[in-house]
Structure formats: C-alpha cells, structure tokens
Amino acid sequence: MPTLLHIDSSVFSTEASASRAVTEAFRKHWEEQHPDGTVIYRDLAAEPVPHLSAQAHVAGFVPPSAHSPEQAAVFAERVKLIEELERADAVLIGAPMYNYTIPSTLKAWLDNVILFGRTAGETPSAKGTPVTVVASRGGSYAPGTPREGYEYVQNYLTAVLADALGMDLDFIVPELTMAPQNPAMAELIPLYEASRDQALVAAAGKAKQLAERLAA
Fold first, then answer.
1. Residue 19 in marked binding region
2. HAMAP family attached here (predicted)?
C-alpha cells in the first residue's frame, strides 16, 4: 500500500495554524483512500531535526568506509531522513511563511535530505515523487500584489524540490491568514475565508487525485 511522508513545520497547533489545518485535511482524505497505507509523520516544530553540521556536510562527500566515528553517527541521521523521503509514494509539507521564507526547521530538514549523488544530481532518487506543499502566509504575495517581490517560499521550494530533487511539485496557498487577528486587515476577512475554504477543497481534491494516480 502507498506511503505518505507528512511533514509539518508550523510552530502553532492545528487550531491556530492555517498550514496544519490544510495538511490535516489532505491527510484525512488520503487515509480514507488508503486505510491500509502507511503515514510517516514528522512534526519539525515538536521534534526538530539537527541543523546541518560541518561533519554531516563533509560526510556526504566521503565514502562511508572513510567516515570518522563522528561522521558515521551524524551521517546515519541524514540517511534515516533520506530513506523516509525515498520510501514515500507521495510527500505532504506544511510550509508557513515566517519573515518572508520557510521555517528554519524545514530548512534544516531540506539541508539534511539534499545529498548530491543520491537525492540530487543527475539521477535524483526521489525524482517524480509527487509533493504537495501547503504554503500559508499572513498576507498576500501573489503576482500583481505590492509584496510580490518578497515571495521567497514558493520560489525557493520550487528550486529545491522540483529543480534539485526532481519531484513533481504542487502548491496549495492559503493566504491572508492574519486578517482575523489584525484589525487593519479586517476588510480582508472575506478574502481570507474564501482562500481558506479553497485550500481545504484543494487539499481534499489533491489527496483523492494522487490516490487515483497511484492506484492506476
């Protein structure tokens, strides 16, 4: 049965997090389609992975037989994360925008799993794997908006997930999530609600679409 790798990185709970609410909806519909499937779950806010150290970085360019004991230990942690990615038939990532980009915990996970000669390079090991990213944000950074130039989430993740890792990338973008909390954005609440509802519908539809694709 198919395996889903589900990664959340929001520092907030599902009740307070737009990205977690949407990834939860995706996962719910995925599990309905795959009741006997496997979900590998990582909550990077609750259990962050180590940031890439010099030893872990260097170990990626040295044959395992030449690893020092320290390199072997830290590289084993990288390999564990890489194997989870490689085992997945589909990947789901919650990537809220914090200060114009992704959470540092998600960046740490990416730094660990990007390994040239394995997950990146001429024949990426997860090439073609569908990955759905829920890229929530407090405002709007869509084309034509005043802050379009500050969009460093979708641009960066496209470069990493699609271009470097060769994955089949799709975004779901709930925006204006700060409208209910910020009085200055009160007039935008209807747009926020529409964006939220659209994201939840998109999550359900994408989960079902992937289920059909993997069953074919």
1. yes
2. Azoreductase_type1
| pTM for this model (two decimals) | 0.95
18 among the known binding-site residues? Answer: yes
CA distance 94 to 125: 22
To the question of whether residue 136 is assigned a binding role by annotation, the answer is yes
**pLDDT score of 211:** 86
pLDDT in tens, 111-167: 999 999 999 999 999 999 999 999 999 999 999 999 999 999 999 999 999 999 999
Angle at 29 between CA 80 and CA 44, to 5 degrees: 35
DSSP per residue over 134-168, as a string? E---SS---TTSTTGGG--SHHHHIIIIIIIT--E
Q: How far apart are CA 110 and CA 117, in angstroms?
A: 15
- Provide Rg for the chain, Cα atoms: 18
37 marked as binding residue: no
Classify residue 45 by its DSSP letter.
T
Listed in sequence order, the residues at least 6 apart from 67 whose beta carbon sits closer than 8 Å to its beta carbon are 59, 75
40, two tokens? 């590998």
State yes or no: 137 annotated in a binding site. yes
Residue found under tokens 């830290």:
74
Within the chain, strands assigned E span: 3-8, 38-43, 90-94, 130-134, 168-172
Residue 66 corresponds to which tokens in the numbers above?
């030449």
- Is the distance from CB of 165 to CB of 126 less than 8 angstroms? yes
Higher per-residue confidence, 80 vs 34 = 80
